[in-house]
Amino acid sequence: MAKALFFRAAGSYTDKMTMMQKMFSRQLAKLWIHAMAQGPWGGGDGGKGAPPSSDTGDNGDDKPAQEGPRNPWTQPGSGPKGTRQGGGNAPRPSMVEDLMRRGRESFDNLTGGDGSGGIPRGPDARALWPIALAIVLVLWLALTSFHRIGPQERGVVTMLGKYSRTLTPGISLTLPAPFEAVDVIDVEEIRAIDVGTVDGDDKNLMLTKDQNLIDLAYSVRWNIRNPEMYEFQIADPDTTIEEVAKSAMRSVIATVSLNEAIGAGRTMIEQQVQTEMQNILDSYRAGIKVQGIAIKQADPPAPVNDAFKEVSAAQQAAQTFVNEANAYAQQLSARAQGEAAAFEKVYEQYRLAPEVTRRRMYYETMEAVLPGVDKTIVETGNVMPYLPLPEMKKRAQAAQPAAAGGE
Amino acid sequence: MQNAVRNPVTLALVAIAFLILLGSTISIVPETRQAVIVRFGEPVRIVNRYKPNETFGHTGAGINIRFPFAEQIVWIDKRVQSVEMDRQQVLSTDQLRLQVDAFARYRIVDPLRMYISAGSEDKVVDALRPILGSSLRNELGKRHFASLLSPERGEVMNNIARSLNHVARQYGAEVIDVRIKRADLPDGAPLQSAFQRMRTAREQEALTIRAQGEKRAQLIRADADATASQVYAASFGKDAQFYDFYRAMQAYRRTFSPQAAGQTSIIMSKDNDFLRQFEGQ
Fold first, then answer.
1. Residues B90 and B100: beta-carbon distance below 8 Å
2. DSSP string of A292-303?
3. In this complex, do A68 and B79 lie within 8 Å of one another by their Cβ atoms?
């Protein structure tokens, strides 16, 4: 599991990963070889006499036997492993130390605790080594042979570098680390790549068919269809997808006009780009499925945006003119109909008694009109009518109430 | 001898030597790599060479054993790789400038040839990049600007891929495709004039729309006027004389009404029709 985590974290750096994987495998191989060699050394050296510091044969025999394997084994084994493997296997060497320490303590207790230090002596210490080894072996097997593959994941198994099989969700068993390696890949997760931004600073201008420019921002959603192809076919798949998306989008935009791209053609463009991207990626055998393209923004470029707004303003203005004209027409026709109807009503009555109605209307009108005006009645013939125009003007300016005319 | 075996330092040295030997004899060839085995500088064999349409698991990947020290491995990527062209300015036949970004995807299919002619993968990229640029310039220089914005573009790309492939083969590589990532008008005058053109086109559109609106409005008004006078004529035409009188009365009321602006003085002769009864006939 720790291994799976490690590989997932390093997932995007395929090159680095394979390198690390190799080094890691090599480390494990080294470890394994030492582990195998450990058994014979431990047993073989037991019988041989050596010049030890202690004079008891059995105890003395152990001392070089311990020192021999211990130094080359624990140091290279634990050092690089701890750093390379991350948290997962880190406790292992410390557990070994722990075991050794405990063994030492128990031995010290047994012999009365003379405090002679780091190197355990006696048959107990000798028995501890195989146990520690066994624990390391079991841990190693458990950590590198069992793989839990989540429901959304697949595990690509390589046996000594060669692709062997793909693990399906569940717990799976593989050969331990140096022989088989598992790359866990999330195949369900929809990944998104954004091209262009909605914010104004980064322009993503493209040429349309009518040689206009359009500022596009879109995102590509994709997931992995075929994990082994994804692993082995393309160097740097993420960049590849982005480049393919850019190229496909441009080639599609180059076939539509600006108005289509801004307005009604978006869905069509999205579909075409998706199809084209899928074709290109399939031709690379990339093992990638393009789930969809979403155009987030399709605007004319900022410097000409005002002119585009002017167009919609003009559309509004044109509609305003039409509306005003329509209002005028309504008003006019209503007035015409009203006046015509009124005339006809009066005319009907007038026809019944023309003379009387005519005079009545005349007098009524005069009655209404004349009270408000200056009136001068002039006798014809005898009087020279003098019209004081300047005075009238003055009066009008002063707006003084005029004296009523009369004889 | 026995002492030597028992000496931990010797043991460690032997173990290290053994490991070094092991490491230089056995190597793991992953699916993503091809290996050229070189003996004293002379390539002797290729491991995990790319073959089209092979299935993973049946490739040459896996354990490889070689003579230690005498033979060395040169690793070559087996995957599809990309070479990006630096941004280039391209002049089309109609003297329009374009800034073009392109990339080519290739795969090394003949590791041996690549090893002999280029030596390393980086050198292949270095060799392909200028050729990609120049073949792009050549091909686009034969075209009209508009053809880059048309389905012809695919053909252009194929031509470039073909000429690039010709060169790539000398390096044991195979070009899969060439694509234009960006084809933009250069900054400065060309871009500004394109903006200017777009702007004027829009202004023209705006004015046209406005004028069309005005035209429609005028037609509507004229229609309304016509309809109104038709209504008036149909109604008033029944008695032109009475209409004259009736309308005159309305006009007097409106004109001489106290609400109307201006002072009115009326000088009436005694013979006025209104004063007919004034003298008590």
1. yes
2. EEEEEEEE--HH
3. no
Per-residue confidence band for B185, with pLDDT thresholds at 50, 70 and 90: confident
Print burial letters for B255-279: b (CB count within 10 Å at least 16), e (below 16): ebeeeeeebbeeebeeeeeeeeeee
* B2 neighbourhood in chain A, CB within 8 Å: 48
- Cβ of B195 and A301 within 8 Å? yes
> Which two tokens mark A255?
């076939």
Determine the residue type at B27: S
Residues 6+ away with beta carbon under 8 Å from A247: A280, B103, B179, B180, B181
Nearest-Cα distance to chain A for B51, in Å, is 12
pLDDT of residue B30: 83
Neighbours of B242 (CB within 10 A): 19
Count of CB pairs separated by less than 8 Å, A with B? 315
Torsion of CA A254, A255, A259, A260, to 10 degrees: -130
Restricting to A residues 97-126, those with a Cβ less than 8 Å away from any Cβ of B are none
Beta bridge partners of B26: B65
Q: Is any Cβ of chain B less than 8 angstroms from the Cβ of A335?
A: yes
The reply to whether residue A333 touches residue B239, judged by beta carbons under 8 angstroms, is no
Nearest CA to CA, how far is A346 from chain B (Å)?
9
Nearest CA to A347 out of B254, B249, B231, B236 is that of B236
Write the CB contacts of B231 (distance below 8 Å, at least 6 apart in sequence).
A333, A336, A337, A340
Whether residue A237 lies within 8 A of chain B, CB to CB, comes out as: no
Q: Alpha-carbon distance B93 to B140, whole Å?
A: 8
CB of A13 within 8 Å of a chain B CB? The answer is no
d(C-alpha B4, C-alpha B11), whole Å: 8
Tokens representing A184 are: 């866990």
Give me the residues paired with residue B108 across strands: B173
Q: What is the ipTM of this complex?
A: 0.73
Cα–Cα nearest to B74, from B116, B102, B19, B106: B116
- Residue corresponding to tokens 């020290």: B69
Going through B48-169 in order, the beta strands assigned E by DSSP cover 62-65, 71-77, 81-84, 88-91, 97-108
Whether the Cβ atoms of residue A265 and residue A256 lie closer than 8 Å to each other? yes
H-run or E-run covering B187: none
Q: What is the pLDDT of residue A202?
A: 58
Put simply, whether A219 touches B (Cβ < 8 Å) is no
pLDDT tens digits along B92-108: 788 878 888 888 888 88
Distance CA A155, CA A80 (A): 25
* Mean pLDDT of all residues belonging to chain B: 83
- The structure tokens listed for A183 are 């790359």
Within A254-301, residue ranges assigned H as helices are 258-262, 266-284
Which regions of chain A are under pLDDT 50? 1-20, 29, 31-91, 111-117, 400-407
Of the candidates A304, A314, A291, which has an alpha carbon nearest to the alpha carbon of residue A208?
A: A304
How far from chain centre, in Å, is Cα B217? Answer: 42
Give the CA dihedral A394, A397, A398, A400, nearest 10 degrees: 90
CA pair distance B4, B8, nearest whole angstrom? 8
Query: How many helices and strands, by DSSP H and E, does chain A display?
Result: 12, 10
Residue from the list A324, A335, A380 with its beta carbon closest to the beta carbon of B271: A380
Q: Closest-CA residue in chain A for B196?
A: A304
What distance in Å separates residue B156's CA from the closest CA in chain A? 12
b/e map of B179-198 (b: 16 or more CB within 10 Å)?
bbbbbbbeeeeebeebbeeb
